[in-house]
């Protein structure tokens, strides 16, 4: 599939996150101090919308059950909780990002 334009760099300020629909997917873009990262917006635990979660530095938490992900790698850095039960959660799907001029391109393959 290759790289596709998702947004322009001025669409997100540092510390901001937004979702963009692209070719049937919902891509979450995060701007960390001018560096951009892309994840599938759907939490791998129970499908929560990650854009609605709290971003603390490079860690994004799912609003449903608190699973936490490093937006730079998609790696799970904190299990989900339902009531007092902790559950293991898979990593979030990460997409490669590159910048060309003012365009943010994401590889969807």
CATH architectural grouping = 3-layer Sandwich
Q: Tell me the Rg in angstroms.
A: 14 Å
Put simply, the count of helices is 0
Give the C-level CATH assignment: Mainly Beta
How many domain regions? 1
CATH superfamily: Rieske [2Fe-2S] iron-sulphur domain
Fraction of residues in helix? under 10%
- Quick check: average pLDDT? 90
Cα shape = globular
Describe the main β-sheet briefly.
4 strands, antiparallel
Order of helices and strands: EEEEEEEEEEEEE
Determine the strand fraction and express it as a percent band.
over 45%
Distance between the termini: 5 Å
Number of strands: 13
What do you see in this structure?
The protein is mainly β. The chain has one domain (3-107): Rieske [2Fe-2S] iron-sulphur domain (Rieske Iron-sulfur Protein, 3-layer Sandwich), CATH 2.102.10.10. The chain is built from no helices and 13 strands. It has strands at 3-8, 17-22, 25-32, 35-40, 55-56, 59-61, 68-70, 76-78, 80-82, 85-87, 94-95, 97-100, 103-107. Strands 2-3-4-11 form a 4-stranded antiparallel beta sheet, with no helix packed on it. Strands 5-6-7-8 form a 4-stranded antiparallel beta sheet, with no helix packed on it. A 3-stranded antiparallel beta sheet has the order 1-13-12, with no helix packed on it. The N and C termini lie close together (5 Å).
In short:
With 109 residues, the chain is mostly beta strands. It has strands at residues 3-8, 17-22, 25-32, 35-40, 55-56, 59-61, 68-70, 76-78, 80-82, 85-87, 94-95, 97-100, 103-107.
């Amino acid at each position: 599939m290759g790289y596709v334009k998702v947004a322009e760099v001025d669409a997100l300020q540092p510390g901001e996150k937004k979702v963009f629909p692209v070719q049937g997917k919902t891509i979450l873009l995060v701007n960390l101090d001018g560096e951009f990262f892309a994840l599938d917006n759907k939490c791998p635990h129970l499908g929560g919308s990650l854009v609605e979660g709290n971003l603390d530095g490079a860690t994004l938490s799912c609003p449903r059950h608190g699973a936490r992900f490093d937006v730079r790698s998609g790696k799970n850095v904190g299990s989900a909780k339902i009531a007092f039960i902790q559950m293991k959660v898979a990593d979030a799907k990460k997409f490669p990002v590159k910048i060309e001029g003012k365009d943010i391109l994401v590889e969807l393959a």
